[in-house]
Write a structure and sequence with these properties.
The structure is a single chain. The protein has 16 helices and 4 strands. With 426 residues, it is mostly helical. The protein has a 4-stranded mixed β-sheet. Helix 1 packs parallel to helix 8 and helix 4 packs antiparallel against helix 7.
Length: 426
């Protein structure tokens, strides 16, 4: 049995396989997430607090970049592992070729369209006149590099799915190390600012792409390029999109949520509030990426055994994955609750930005503050209280002589005058 024999997916114990495939994926995704945090630190320290806000504005568009890539990479890697489970090597090779061509096609379609309408997209996503130049400078370079990004991510997922989890992990490590070396040079030495950070990202991904593509040109790889890779079949394309649609829609939903939050923060807190959310988002993403690494490790096991019709092994993998995911996310909750100031201060030396981020971490973990319905002149307005406790709301209202009624689910009804309350109770 060869060292990278993918058929062990149907024979070894599920616990051993989950460790063998998930730990390299988790390490790879964690390293990538840590780099994203380090990149934010470089930008915050080297460009400024407003640049952090500009980076936060670009998050939704970056989520969309990932979404269109996942549409292909998730579907392609899953089908490749299913074909291996069915002992269909020719089918797995076809999936590899289709994944490459669809990644390239999607990247040009999404990259060009987004580049043309970039300013309008960023303004819609919550950019102000102050943050737009930062977000634009960063995303222009990132969008130009989408063919590189899509090819690297798409083929790396197929590499993992076809029996090379450690080699797929090395792709992330090589990319991140290159990025950590290049980013400070471009940002601090050359003073390229946001473009420097983005350029370092694209160049490091180019190195990762060369590493992955070279793997599939080797004849001793389990699955490798054969024949005319540009020829595609409608049936296979449809199957890839069908499987990839679920993670694609999840990423799109995440994008929509961030757009709503950014616009709300822009209206009620300004650019610094968006910057604080950017810090929080980086922290939350770290734990999301760890869980994503876990699911990436599960995917080849589930796909192979599904293809081999070993449904009991599929169910066992799912159960172990759920338990592991709960443990990981619970640890993230406790760290953010216990050390919010320490983790926020890593990103910036702006006390105001740190305070906003700390307050946001507490609210995200504890469920937020109070919603206040203000009744005045027969009209009702809804606002949010900055006070975290009911006593605080009581005292604030009492100081203004305004009668209030505290209801369940953290809802407070505040009346502008006693007569407003009397009229309601009459």
């Amino acid at each position: 049995m060869s060292k990278n024999d993918p058929h062990i997916l149907g024979k070894e114990s599920i616990g051993k396989l989950l460790l063998q495939y998930s730990i390299p994926a988790i390490i790879g995704m964690t390293i990538t997430s840590i780099y994203n945090i380090i990149d934010s630190i470089f930008i915050g320290r080297g460009v400024g607090a407003m640049a952090i806000a500009g980076l936060a504005v670009s998050f939704p568009l970056m989520n969309l970049v990932v979404a269109f890539c996942t549409l292909v990479s998730a579907g392609g890697s899953t089908l490749a592992s299913i074909r291996l489970g069915q002992k269909d090597m020719k089918g797995a090779t076809e999936i590899l070729s289709h994944t490459l061509m669809l990644c390239i096609t999607n990247s040009f379609f999404f990259g060009i369209l987004s580049f043309i309408f970039l300013d309008d997209i960023l303004v819609f996503f919550g950019a102000s006149a102050d943050t737009l130049p930062y977000a634009r400078s960063f995303m222009q370079v990132i969008l130009l590099g989408t063919p590189i990004t899509y090819t690297m991510i798409g083929l790396n997922n197929v590499m993992r799915a076809t029996g090379y989890p450690k080699k797929a992990m090395l792709t992330s490590m090589v990319t991140v190390v290159a990025n950590i070396i290049l980013a400070p040079i471009f940002i601090f030495h050359f003073e390229w600012g946001m473009r420097g950070a983005a350029t370092a990202t694209v160049i490091s991904q180019l190195i990762g792409m060369v590493w992955v593509v070279s793997h599939f040109f080797k004849q001793d790889s389990t699955v490798h390029f054969e024949g005319k890779v540009w020829k595609m079949k409608r049936r296979i394309v449809g199957n890839i999109f069908a499987i990839g649609m679920s993670p694609f829609l999840m990423n799109v939903c995440a994008c929509v949520i961030v757009i709503i939050i950014n616009n709300s923060l822009q209206n009620h807190g300004g650019d610094m509030a968006i910057g604080a959310y950017g810090i929080i988002n980086r922290l939350l993403t770290l734990y999301v990426m760890i869980v994503l690494g876990l699911t990436m490790g599960m995917q080849p096991i589930v796909g192979y055994n599904f293809g081999a019709q070993k449904i009991d092994r599929v169910k066992q993998t799912l159960k172990l994955g759920i338990v592991s995911g709960v443990v990981i996310t619970s640890s993230g909750f406790f760290i953010c609750e216990l050390f919010p100031h320490a983790v926020s201060a890593i990103f910036t030396d702006s006390d105001h930005l740190i305070d906003l981020a700390v307050d946001g971490e507490y609210r995200i973990e504890s469920g937020g503050g109070w919603n206040i319905l203000t009744v005045s002149g027969g009209k009702i307005a809804v606002t949010s209280a900055s006070c975290p406790t009911q006593d605080c709301v009581h005292h604030a209202a009492a100081d203004h002589g305004a009668p209030i009624v505290c209801l369940p689910n953290r809802l407070v009804v505040q009346f502008s005058t006693p007569s407003e309350l009397d009229a309601l109770l009459a």
